[in-house]
């Protein structure tokens, strides 16, 4: 699981009204909650190859229902230990909230390839199919 404050999308996520960040143990541990359902949000960061990164970029432009159909038809992009693309994802345990953002490694740092995408309800369940 990724650390919240090390994620590139941390600022956008913390600005979301439906997200609460609780700090404990002297601020060293953070718990992220989706407030409408009080569900814990799990954080993920996975790297992808150039081909799969380009595929992810196209997938993230689709509507959630189309995204789910594409993933079912062609499979999920496969993650690699170290790649030029990184997908950061936040998914609530009840799958009623999902946030996705793709980054590309350029000039020794990850820069955003897409804007953060926030999904709730059924859209979140469908968008979480990519993970």
General description of the model:
The chain has 131 residues and is of the alpha+beta class. 25% of the residues lie in helices and 38% in strands. It has four helices and eight strands, in the order H-E-E-E-H-H-E-E-E-E-E-H. The protein has helices at 10-14, 50-60, 64-74, 122-127; strands at residues 19-24, 29-34, 39-48, 79-80, 85-92, 97-106, 109-112, 117-120. Strands 1, 2, 3, 4, 5, 6, 7 and 8 form an eight-stranded antiparallel β-sheet that branches. The longest helix is centred in the middle third of the chain and has 11 residues, at 50-60. The chain is globular and about 40 Å long. The mean pLDDT is 91.
The largest pleated sheet is described as:
8 strands, antiparallel
Provide the low-confidence segments as ranges: none
Shape: globular
The mean pLDDT is 91
Number of strands: 8
Rg calculated over all Cα atoms: 14 Å
User: What is the H/E order?
Assistant: HEEEHHEEEEEH
Strand content: 35-45%
Total of helices? 4
Proportion of residues in helical segments: 25-40%
Which class do the helix and strand fractions yield? alpha+beta
How many angstroms does the end-to-end distance come to? 13 Å
């Amino acid at each position: 699981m990724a650390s919240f404050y090390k994620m590139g999308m941390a600022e956008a996520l913390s600005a979301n009204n439906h997200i609460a960040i609780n700090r404990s143990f002297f601020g060293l541990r953070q718990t992220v909650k989706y407030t409408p359902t009080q569900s814990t949000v799990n954080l993920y960061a996975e790297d992808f190859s150039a081909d799969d990164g380009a595929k992810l970029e196209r997938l993230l432009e689709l509507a959630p229902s189309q995204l789910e159909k594409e993933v079912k038809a062609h499979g999920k992009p496969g993650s690699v230990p170290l790649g030029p693309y990184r997908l950061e994802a936040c998914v609530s345990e009840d799958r009623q909230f999902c946030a996705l953002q793709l980054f590309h490694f350029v000039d020794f740092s990850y820069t955003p390839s897409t804007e953060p995408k926030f999904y709730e309800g059924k859209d979140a369940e469908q968008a979480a199919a990519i993970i």
